[in-house]
Amino acid sequence: MNRKKPAPLSVWRPLNLDHFLLGAPHYPEHVDEGCWRRDAERMAAAGVNTVRMGEFAWHIFEPREGRFEFGLFDRAIEILSQAGIDTIMCTPTATPPRWLTVNYPEVLRVDINGRASSHGSRQHADTTSPVFRAHSRRITRAMAEHYRDNPRVIGWQTDNELNTTVSETFAPSTRLEFQKYLQNAYGTIEALNFAWGGHFWATAYDDFSQIDLPRPLMPSYPSPGHVQDYHRFLAAATAAFQHDQVEILRAANPDWFIFHNLGQLADIDFRGQFGQDLDFIGFDIYPMLYDEMRRTGGHAATQALHLDICRAYSGNFIVPEQSSGFGSQPGFSTMTPEPGEMRRMAMTSVARGADGVMFFRWRPAHFGAEIYWMGVIDHDDVPRRRYDEASRFFHEIAAIKDKVLGTVVRMDLGIAGADFDNQEAHKTYPIGLPSPLEDATLLHRHCYHNGIACGFIHPEDDLSRLKALYIPHWVMWKDQWNDAVETFVRNGGTLILSALSGTRDENNHIIREQAPGNVLAALSGVKVVEFGRVVAEGGSGLFPLFRPAAMGAYAPPPLPASSVERKYFFTLGNEEFQASHLYELLETAPDVEVLGAWSNRFAAGSPAITARKVGQGQVVYVGTYLTPQLAEKLVDVVLAKAGIAPLLPDLPAGVEVSIREADDRRLMFVLNTTETPVMVPNVPAGVDLLTGKPVAGALQLEAYGCAVIALNL
């Protein structure tokens, strides 16, 4: 396997490996050593080329402080290597051993009520703690030095799903580190007081040592700037914690690739040092977990959404954990993939940018907090349909890997994403409005169901490959994005701006000019005269301002329905729509076309949606939030004119389609996400790489069937 230096972070970045990673997380410490050789032989027969090991085994690597033992994993790696299987090792810092937390209790994470975490779970140590960072460096250095010359250890994963269990911490050492971070960021206390609005509620400080960690509703709301900086600090601390490990691993063997596997996306700035330190990023994908825990309304669409979100952070990625079956922890369980569905979900990952897929896990555990989280092999050591399905997928991808590697996912419509500050800015002052991602999901879901090439992109990436760009209510608009976005429009792109765009600066202050700010106003020809809340589309009232169940705050009695049911409507094309969440009244420049106007109440006749030609392109402004109906209409009225059309006309329900492409090839993935066979019409001419058969016109897919078509160029 050859590794190149990674290219700069971009949604368009392919992986820097010439190897498609296929395998599973493997836990030899969980089973009798007599099973290891049989496991390795079964893996090799199934097409596994790589396993991941060691992420929860610090207590085995270092059973006593300063005493290191590598024999168990050395033997496991050797047996796997005899079967032709490589190993990715992990730094085991997600589960520090008991001796560490007994001898150094200051490393324990502390919750908002001042309670220290206890041993017996995972992620109980505080990654902001200097003491814990020192121990993390020591175990990483010992492992790196031990494995530096082992040719079967080909790369490393840092930690495991950082910040997934919990990201916030309120330990005394965290407070000190936060104060240091702020002093370094601001230099003077006067600069911090300005940024946080210290004259409001007398929240100014005399010295950095006075600053505490922000706690919600104690007794009222802290400054949005204070909260934003706390989460910036947590992201910086997480990046620094990982950076310690990356430096050690790079020094030990510069040929190793290094990545991290993300679960939740909390308090990590992927576009900052965290992502720049890595060769690529891994994203753990459990589609049915999203449905069960978040009630998302369809695991196939939600898997596609999550993959597209993740790709915006880093470009192509690997999936170190892809669900293989039933999953559970004591408090929840997921649905079980039906025959063929495990393969289809893995193929969706490849279709949307994965250059490596590992099914979680090789064997299920017989003890601990995930005893019913199934693996490729069953509890009774018998390989059944999940093994057969994994084997089919591995062999299929191995046969076409040279076609897949080096390609990136096509996008005609880009949705602005991957910006840490805008993610956090909404959280600091949500006022019941949907987050940028919640709003963008409505547009993404419409595109997904209709086969439109849509994904997420950061404004600093190459926008020239897009036909349209949607900005989903980003309140912070940064000057460094102006030139690229204006060039995109002038060269023929369509830019869609949304309500509240560009209304705050980086300190979370409301800007002092009329929204949406100088540059966005100049591009759109629009200025906001007034804004206000409206009933959420399909709802009967506003979101609560207080959340007593979560925060213990006083909740006023509900208002009469008549006082909150203010519904606003607007026209677009020849249809009328109900506005959702917010209205804006707009004043427009003379060269602005009014696409839609408010049609009732005092707003009647005022512009609601506008368009303005800029160079060869146009800027559209939408003075409200999306609904499913509005998203569909915008695609028809605005995006169709920008040249955006479905990749396959008349796409049957439940069929997803996407394209991965390079200069010399184009691969169309056509995947049936349903339990019934389906006929897909209008498929362009090419060869299905999975069957070797030519395709043109109608394509028959079995239940959960997959086709990867090399299109004729």
Unreliable stretches covering 5 or more consecutive residues: 540-563
> What would you call the shape?
globular
Structural class: alpha/beta
Percentage of β-strand residues: 15-25%
Average pLDDT over all residues: 94
Query: Whole-Å distance between the termini?
Result: 30 Å
The Rg value, from CA coordinates, equals 26 Å
Beta strand count: 27
The largest beta-sheet arranges its strands as 13-12-14-15-22-21-20-17-18
State the helicity in percent bands.
Answer: 25-40%
The appropriate CATH architecture of the domain at 413-642 is 3-Layer(aba) Sandwich
Write the CATH homologous superfamily of the domain at 413-642.
Class I glutamine amidotransferase (GATase) domain
What is the count of DSSP helices, taking H or I runs of 4+ residues? 20
CATH class bucket of the domain at 413-642: Alpha Beta
Profile the largest sheet.
Answer: 9 strands, mixed
The CATH topology of the domain at 413-642 turns out to be Rossmann fold
